[in-house]
Amino acid sequence: MNELKHVEREVESLRNQERRRRGEAEALERSSMEELVCLEREVESSLSSIRERQDLLRAKQEEETGLEKEKELRRENDKLRKEVEELQWARLQGCGLHREKATSTICTSDCSSESDVQSDTLLQLSFKHSY
């Protein structure tokens, strides 16, 4: 009888241990799930922050690219403006040389009179100072 009671106690002890282990396992599982949920929230927050920074960087890069394109266009515009000024100056000089060599006062180039030369000169000066 003693042996039977002893075995019953051992069985009960083993059952209690099994219940405790199951409880601990369930508690550990709940704790792990809570940690997992917390980690998932942190990951989502980090991803959101990364996406925001990427958007800001893209916007900044697009702005810088736009500024670079604008600078390039301005350089090209300045270059073309200088070419136009040089061509206008060459035209004015050509008309002046042609007049000096011509026997009459009529110029056969674009400049047909002295007033045209003067207006071209004024146009050139106003063109230079307008930019």
Structure overview:
The protein has 131 residues and is mostly helical. It has one domain (2-129). It is 89% helix and 0% strand. The protein is built from two helices and no strands. The chain has helices spanning 2-101, 114-129. The longest helix is centred in the middle third of the chain and has 100 residues, at 2-101.
Descriptive labels:
single chain, 131 residues, mainly alpha, 89% helix, 0% strand, rod-shaped, DNA-binding transcription factor activity, coiled coil, K-box domain-containing protein, TF_Kbox
Write the layout of secondary structure elements.
Blueprint: H1 2-101, H2 114-129
- Average pLDDT, rounded to a whole number, is 82
* Binned strand content: under 5%
Question: What is the chain-wise order of helices and strands?
Answer: HH
Number of helices: 2
pLDDT under 50 segments (min length 5)?
A: 103-107
* DSSP strand tally: 0
Nutshell version of this structure?
By secondary structure, the chain is mainly α. It is 89% helix and 0% strand. Helix 1 packs antiparallel against helix 2.
